[in-house]
Each structure stands twice: as structure tokens, then as C-alpha cells.
Design brief:
By secondary structure, this protein is mainly α. It has one domain: Growth Hormone, Chain: A. It has 9 helices and no strands. The radius of gyration is 19 Å and the shape is globular. One of its GO terms (cellular component) is plasma membrane. It comes from bioreactor metagenome. Its main location: membrane.
Length: 210
């Protein structure tokens, strides 16, 4: 028969979780990075959900066309990884955390505005480049700014934020697509990244000047 964990062990687990969350809350760089990651993961990861519908309804392409567009995202991701490797020895990349999500949002909005296959391919290459670059910098920022004893808990929260928020964004994108079409959904997702980032930036400026 399976052995039930002792109550004090369960209590210790909950205390460790609370301690990890408090550590993130009290360390601004970790909290800010996770909030930005939450925004990007919620609304930028929808490209994979929207792309099949967009390919068929707007571009009037079939499976082959869809596969090529997904490859374009991979091409952008590849060059994004090379870019991060090239700049990795030049110190902190704090500006990327706020600026690259804006480029991701811009590529989403542009995706909603285009109606040709070539331009959509270009948008996806750009999106892949900035998305992988941002994800790499966010991960690295969390790793190097976290004490060893908290690293497991912080990265667990990062994984939860990065992967667990996607279904919420998928639901949002699906509702917009159902009512207004895939182009509007791309634009809406881009706007939903920009607005909270703008609010975060204003809050940061006000905090520094206060």
C-alpha cells in the first residue's frame, strides 16, 4: 500500500511555496520578469492556434502553405537563438525584457493587417526571432538573479507562468476569432500585450520619480 506523506511534510511543502512566492514578490527584477513573461505567454503564444485558421480563411492556403509558415517561425527562432548567443558576453540585457515584447506585439498586429502569403511569412520570421530572444533573456534573468536555495521554486513559477497561461490566451483568441475573424484576433492579441506593458512602464517611471 502507498505510504501517505506525513502532515508535517505537507505543511513544509506549503511553507516552501509561500516562501518562494514571497521571495519573488520582494525581489523586483524577478517579479517584473515574471509579470512580463505572463503577458507575453498569454497573448503571444496564440499564433499557433490562430495560424491554421488564418492560413485557410485569409490566405486561402492548404496544409503545405501552413507547414511552410510554421517553418518561417522556426527560422526566426533559429536566428533569435544565434542573436542571443552573440550578445551573451556583453553584460545585462534589461532593455530587452521590455522592448522585445513590444516587437512581438507589433509583429502580431502586422500579422492581422497583412493579406498576402509572403508578408505573413515575414511577420512570422520576425515574431520567432523576438519571441525566442525574449524567452532566453527572461530565463537567464531569473536564473542569475535568484539565490541557489530559491532557484527551483522560481523556475517552477516561470514554467507555470510560461506554459500555464497559454490556454487563457487561446480562449481569448478563439472568442475574438469566432466573432471577428483571425485577423482581428492577431491584432487584439498584440494590443493586449502593449496595454499592460505600457501600464507597467508608467508605473515604473512614477515609482522612480516618487
Amino acid at each position: 500500500m502507498p505510504v501517505e506523506p506525513a502532515k508535517d511534510e505537507n505543511k513544509k511543502v506549503m511553507e516552501n511555496i509561500k516562501d518562494g512566492l514571497a521571495y519573488i514578490r520582494d525581489k523586483a527584477v524577478l517579479f517584473k520578469t515574471l509579470v512580463i513573461t505572463l503577458i507575453v505567454a498569454t497573448f503571444a503564444m496564440n499564433y499557433a492556434v490562430l495560424l491554421p485558421v488564418f492560413t485557410k480563411v485569409v490566405l486561402h492556403e492548404e496544409e503545405t502553405g501552413f507547414g511552410f509558415l510554421m517553418s518561417c517561425m522556426g527560422i526566426g527562432s533559429f536566428f533569435g537563438a544565434l542573436f542571443i548567443a552573440a550578445i551573451s558576453g556583453h553584460g545585462p540585457k534589461k532593455n530587452i525584457l521590455l522592448s522585445f515584447p513590444l516587437f512581438i506585439a507589433a509583429s502580431l498586429i502586422l500579422s492581422g493587417l497583412v493579406s498576402t502569403y509572403f508578408l505573413m511569412a515575414v511577420c512570422l520570421i520576425i515574431m520567432g526571432f523576438f519571441f525566442v530572444s525574449f524567452a532566453s533573456i527572461a530565463n537567464t534573468t531569473l536564473q542569475i538573479n535568484t539565490k541557489n536555495e530559491y532557484r527551483g521554486r522560481v523556475m517552477s513559477i516561470y514554467t507555470l507562468v510560461f506554459s500555464g497561461s497559454t490556454p487563457i490566451g487561446n480562449l481569448f483568441a478563439g472568442i475574438i476569432t469566432d466573432h471577428f475573424g483571425p485577423s482581428a484576433a492577431y491584432i487584439a492579441c498584440g494590443v493586449m500585450i502593449i496595454l499592460p506593458l505600457l501600464a507597467l512602464y508608467i508605473w515604473k517611471v512614477n515609482s522612480e520619480t516618487a
